[in-house]
Here is the input.
Amino acid sequence: FSLQQFRLTCIFMYHKMFVPLPKAQHELDGSAQAQDQISRCCNKLRSLRASDSATLKTELNSLFDQLISENYNSGNHDNIHPEVVCEMLMHASRLVPLSQEHLIIKLSQLIHQLLNQLQVIVDEHALDVLVSYCTRALRTCSSWTHPEVLLALSSLVYGNGSRCHRHLPELLGLSGILVNYGDPSQPDIELRRSAVHCLANLCLSVPGQPYLEEPYKGVCYGILLRTLQSPKPPDVEDIVFCTLLQSALKGTQYFLNGGKWKAVSTQDLGTLLALLKRFMFYGLPGISVEMPQVLYPAPLPQYETIPAAKPELSQDSASQQNKKRKSRGKGKKAGAEGKNDDDDHISGHLKTGGSGVDQSGWSLGSQSASVTSPSGVTPQLYPSWKKGSSDSEFSDPEGGMQTKLRLYQARVRQSALQCFLAVVKCVEKRILYGYWSSFVPDAPGIGGPPPLTLLTIALKDPSPKVRAGSLQVLSALLEGSRQFLSTAEDTSAPRQAFTPFSATLAASVRELHRCLLLALVAESSCQTLTQVLKCLAHLVSNVPYNRLRPGLLSPLWKQIRPYVRHRDVNVRVSSLTLFGALVSTQAPLPEIQLLLQQPGSTSALSTPGISTPQELSHNWRLPTRRDGEASSPGGGVEGDPEGPCWMLQLCVSLVTQPREEPYSDSDAGGSSGASLEPLPIRLEALQVLAHLVKGYFSLVQTSLLELGQLSTRCLKEQEPSVQLHGTKVLDLYVFVISLCQVKKQMVLAAPMISALQNEQHPTLQTSACDTLSSILPQAFSQLPNKTQVLCITILLGLTYSENALVKAAAVRALGVYILFPCLREDVMFVADTANAILTALDDRSPNVRAKAAWSLGNLTDTLIVNMQSVGLEFQEEFSDMLLLNMLRSATKASGDKDRVKSNAVRALGNLVHFLQPVHLGKPVFEQPLQEAMRALIDTVRGEATMKVRWNACYALGNAFRNHNLPLGSADWSKEAYSALSYVVTSCKNFKVRIKSAAALSVPSTRDRYGDAQQFAQVWQALAQALEHSEEMEDFLEYRYCASLRSQLCHALLHLLSVCQPNDLPALRSSLSDQSRPVLQGFLVHYLSNKGVTLVAGVDGAAGDEAGDHAVPEDGLRALNETLTRLKGQLEEAVLDSSEDLETVVNFLEDVLRNFEEVKESDSKVFSLPLSKLPQ
Here is the structure.
């Protein structure tokens, strides 16, 4: 054994004994050891049997201690199965009798620790066993054990409220355990806190599980609400009371997440909002406000009563105090905030840089709130929590408890804001906006205390999480508020007598812009800064800037430009989202157009973070500036104003250019390439570019080639999301070049074809199909024939794709192409498209069937256009068998869902209109024609949506235009007229009535109306509808009244023009009773050309219906011709029919005479001012 061998052996032993194992191996061994220990304890526990021996108590005590001492939060226990935990706890509950209270406490602690740290939700059997055990313990054991048992019970019922139905009477009944312990009159605060925690967990429901049922849900809410309303008992510590409030607020949040808000007597929204507003400011330094007990919905703000301010100190005493503060504040440091935003570091959220003002004071905060133009970075813009605090309690040796208290108070405020967010999500916005003034300011509050709103928290709260929470609530309020904010207006001159609601709302919008801009400048927490930018994006997307004085967007635009190069990737993404909102809202806005035309900032947009006030201390990160390169803190160096749009250049550079190295520390994981910007930034830049091209394409016309190159580059990338967003830009690019009629064929280059054929990414194929469908007809006709054939071939092939989204997009694109003038006369293309559409119409996907029905409607519109323009040549070349298949498929689709049915009936009307005598004479068409007409009749009579019924009435009128149709003699004719007559008198939607009246006036000859009885039914229905045309269930239908009356008058005059002598008795009966003057008045009004002017004057809403009826001049001509014809018949009439004929003639003469009188009086009114002119 040589010395060398001895040395080697020693080295080996040393490494084996002292060198640590690799990290993965160490974690693996630790996990195995933990598993072994748990398994040993579980096996030992299973081997025990219930008895009264002291040995069993000792062993249980030891086993519980071992299990409780484990740290289950570590990763060593991830492989413990929930079934093992449930079985072990159930067996332990059988071993511990209710007489052993010390063991019950340890078992309760074990239940709480295992379920919480391992995040186990127990199964139904274990839940039943363990909840029964806990309830029996609460009924039997001493009160000193109850807090621990309630803690275990809260872990058991977490997310299991609906599954505890067997125990709910005992827990939440009239004298239930949780009802008694959770009541505010309960003197033991620990019991009360634990019971409220149980109630909160009962209200929680995990996804896939039903919510807690009534009336127990209401019982929980009542206790939680009373807990929030009750004051703090004098002998309870502040921190303990904070935990109670936090549990109550969390429970209220879980309750609100359980469904839509129901306005019942036990749930008053104003009371809840008043409580939430109170706890939103709970413990906030400098706030001691008596909130109202109830908030009432009102357009004007409710003012909180703030206690009278302390008398001002004399000048000498104030100076002495300032000296003391300055002397105490020397040499003290405060932690920076940007590093860690947790609530545990509230003590570090103080920055030196102020003038020695107490942090709990609001003086600087109110000054900062009154700044109206935050154009630069000045100390006055910073809120009070950003100022230095020379006499902070945190620096005292006894400040630990105060720091902890402020942490718990911040958690209460955060819970209140989370609860408020749940309110916003579960309450209808129209109800919630009644409380707008209680949470959103409408004035800066200069010269007085600041208003207590969500923006007060965003500007003043020392906790970044609370500030972020208030901004989240504000964002939720602003989301979808476009209709509410649309009433805001301040462009007119201000009124002196009173302030209208529109002006108040406009002032609120301006204050929102001002305060959020202050928050943007002052915020240094990256997470909260992201929320500020998102909130601004929601605000910009919903504000009606065209009704407000310009100037709101320019300061915002100037401030957010530097954030595009912020060090945090989330802030950069949010700033781009805000830019997207700015260029997309109500585009094109003149103010945004001017801002886009301003010269770009090369230094501010390429130098990371130089202009953001939060990063003025980060100059060491800046790259060395070249000679001659100037920086501008405001974000502006003079450039060429006539060059390309700077935002377009910015977006293109973010997508294609390498990222800046100084700010790549947090971006490594998000980039598709090592040298490019992170993927979220590139995608957001593409979205901004799409909005820019869509809203301001006049500014990007000079960069069409650059846009095409960018789209091509995106399509060549491997990342599917970049390809998808590239196709969206390409879609708008195609639209722009179509408008400009530019011959750019880059869109159909190899990358586009590759995207269309990329079966691995169907979303990309879908977007590419949408891009092809966005080509305008004029631009498509200018493409070479090979390119046109390529587009059509690709789309026809994709209609047979296995992916429903791709198939739907391809079918829709064909539905667009079928309307192109250069394609619609091509019989082969029409036939190929029809076959593809009919195949898609049988697809199992409702979305595909809906798109196919829409395309089929367009195709049949093309058939009607070709029938009128091309004539018999096209009809003879079109296949009869294909036409028959289209008729059958459309009839079948008319029984589908409403999305499909609305266009299927449109197609049916066109197809029946298209049928020629050669088709109607074939027996093979007889049955499909009857089925098609009955399908239209059933749809008109049915309970479908109004859009479907409108289309069905339109389709029937379209079918009636076919002169070859056996209308009047066919079996279905009577049913068709009966259905239209029913709709014109009883449908609550006036647009459907208008379309049915238009259909009833289509037949051009008397024989097409059937026999005298059928004609009389149509006449009576139209007369009744006109007589009651001012009666409506919904006031929104009022805007269609004039159009309805005009159409009904036109239909009645048309019937009079074709009536025959055997129809006169029915006409006489309706013209002899009390309805005669009503009908006469409406007809005179119609002939006076007043009905049409009313139609055109209702916000353009009824303009679509105005074309359904002829102009009154045509009606007057028809009236004169009818009167002449009937007078001639009156001279030749026999005695039996002369009375009926005379009644109708007298009625028409009265109408004509009254019309002449109205016309003469109108001419006098118009000539009156002329007679008064000086000669």
About this structure: The chain has 54 helices and no strands.
